[in-house]
Amino acid sequence: MSSNVPFSGVVPPVVTPDTPDHQLDVVSFERSINRLIEAGVDGLFFLGSSGEVVFATDERRDQIVREAVRIVNHRVPVLVGIIDTETERVLEHGRRALALGADALVATAPFYALGGPADVEEHFRILHQELDAPLFAYDIPVCVHTKLPWKMLARLGAEGVLAGVKDSSGDDVSFRYLVQENEKNGHPLTLLTGHEIVVDGALLSGADGSVPGLANVEPKGYVRMWKAAQDGNWSEVKREQDRLNEISHIFDVTTGVQGYGAGVGAFKCALNLMGIFDSDQMPRPVKPLDDQNREAIKQVLVANNLL
Question: Which GO terms describe its molecular function (predicted)?
């Protein structure tokens, strides 16, 4: 784990705010981005799962990246998700993101015409060959129905195909093996965990940082945790993780919702209650949380001194 590794540290997957009529809320977007940067994050990841990438038209994707690059204004690196069903579509997104100013690109495995491991590996090789930018593999099998094998990721890193991995697989054994193999290879990959509840364990094992969705709500805690890890203060790392985990109960105090509505819906509700987002609108067909669930999330925020 090193603070000198490119794109290391805390890189939140930025939640995209919507207006009540389902347009990009640029004012709230700017407020949120500035707040994250002022909290000391090391980079920002746009158009990830939390950023509504799969709900966004090509035009909306371009708008989000354009506004993100403008607002960030080179203060931290901008990573952009180029997630789509198959390789040619991903390449199109990548070319546009780079033209708009992205510093690095993040891609999943293909997720419609499912192939085997050889096709997935070729997918990343093609992206590397045709897109002139650092490329991160995004391991999120719950959404794309393919688990990226750690041996393949390590091999692609050693060969210079991948610059890094954003691991949201929840498979801590696989991630630990990947960290160890990456060290054997000379640490070519930047390894970031998206498993926000156990970032402390990932950092202890040698991860280069985190991509925690909860940092949209409470970024300073993840920044403090990263700095404590850099100092080798592991008791402080655990203390901060425990505190953040109390805030993470915004995910499980709700009832009658699941999936995207429960996860990103909780983020948007919390950000709206905290005055960061002007609206908690969700992308169609997902509904915002109802009053009962908003109250439950409010109580978690109050209990953790965020309201």
Answer: N-acetylneuraminate lyase activity
| Annotated binding-site residue? 165 | no
Query: Any idea how long the chain is?
Result: 307
Per residue in 186-216, pLDDT tens? 999 999 999 999 999 999 999 999 999 999 9
pTM of this structure: 0.97
Contact (CB, 8 A) for 87 and 108: no
CB atoms within 10 A of CB 216: 23
237's CB contacts (< 8 A; 6+ apart) are 200, 203, 204, 225, 228, 229
Strands (DSSP E) found in 140-296:
164-167, 190-193, 209-210
268 is catalytic: no
Structure token pair of residue 141: 């099998």
Active site residue: 112, 147, 151, 166, which one? 166
* Domains, in order of start, for the chain: 9-233 (3.20.20.70)
